[in-house]
Write a structure and sequence with these properties.
single chain
Length: 320
């Protein structure tokens, strides 16, 4: 049996019963062709959430770092995950990326230029799809290291990113705990790199899903490390937890990498200490830690406005 059949059937049902009626009512039937692709990757996103749950929950129950009697803050993170991986992520990584790549390829062809691909830059990659896929992951992870590091350097950007760091009850659900503006900036960053190296519209969402799955594992509330060698090959929950430590918020953070620790090792921001630190950002308003989804989004906008004010405090991350 073809393993894709259940996903195709679910995507077909989602398109026929939900997406097409909505597109028809909004007079957007020109999106009919790509709506099936969006539906398919939304289904893949839901399946990824299920896989993430099946892997990370047993780890968190087996060897938790912390236990909390009240887990309402974790419930809010579940909402973030569903919005990002079943809604926003497929929309941006398939529909928008597809349209941008079609437009860019057409524009370059009309002007006598050949659309960029990694295989054209490195001809030896032709016919080696797995190696090419791996290099795509490495390149995207390298640029994501710098995106993440910049989000801690620029005060206005960290005013949004602080929502991610405010969580004192960090679990595998916390990876998607981001302000919508911060999430959109991240996707624009990823899409720009993806277009520059010629990732296909079908590969791009799959790469993003893989990256986010591994990032979820790195946020898990579990006493799991990969050993001396393993932690230098792939980011573990222990390694990434140091990035979320209460003494590492804002400019003082470490371990910015998403799935590969190589860039932290290369640029001097790696911390391989063995302890499992407490998480949270002491500079963040309480609502960013324990408020509801909409309240946190609004608080992030207020913090952004204050960071852009000419009367903001001198300290880059001191404003509450």
């Amino acid at each position: 049996m073809d393993l894709n059949v259940p996903f195709d059937l679910a995507a077909g049902w989602l398109q026929g019963n939900i997406l097409l009626p909505v597109l028809y009512q909004l007079d957007l039937m020109q999106w009919e062709d790509v709506s099936l692709g969006w539906a398919l990757f939304a289904v893949y996103g839901a399946a990824q959430v299920a896989v993430m749950y099946a892997i990370c929950l047993p780890l968190e129950r087996w060897r938790p770092v912390e236990n909390w009697p009240d887990k309402r803050a974790v419930v809010v993170d579940v909402i973030y995950t569903v919005v990002a991986r079943v809604g926003l992520l497929p929309l941006l990584t398939f529909v928008v990326f597809y349209q941008l790549q079609v437009w860019l390829s057409g524009w370059m062809t009309d002007h006598g230029w050949v659309p960029p691909t990694l295989e054209r830059l490195i001809p030896a990659l032709l016919g080696h799809q797995l190696l090419t896929f791996f290099l795509y992951v490495v390149i995207l992870d390298f640029f994501d290291y710098w995106r993440h590091r910049f989000s801690h350097v620029f005060n206005w950007w960290y005013s949004l990113h602080a929502l991610h760091h405010a969580q004192r009850q960090m679990t595998f659900w916390s990876d998607d705990r981001n302000h919508l503006l911060d999430e959109i900036i991240s996707f624009v960053w990823f899409m720009a790199i993806g277009l520059a190296i010629g990732i296909s519209p079908l590969q791009f969402p799959l790469i993003i899903l893989l990256l986010r799955l591994l990032e979820s594992l790195s946020h898990a509330n579990t006493r799991v490390s990969f050993g001396w060698l393993g932690e230098r090959l792939l980011i573990s929950p222990r390694f990434h937890r140091a990035h979320h430590g209460v003494t590492a918020a804002g400019l003082n953070s470490v371990n910015y990498g998403a799935i590969l620790p190589w860039w932290d090792m290369m640029f001097g921001t790696a911390d391989f200490a063995r302890e499992f630190v407490r998480t949270g950002d002491p500079t963040a308003e309480e609502v960013l830690a324990s408020g509801g989804y909409l309240a946190q989004q609004w608080a992030g906008l207020r913090r952004l406005a204050r960071s852009l004010s000419p009367h903001r405090p001198k300290s880059a991350h001191a404003a509450k």
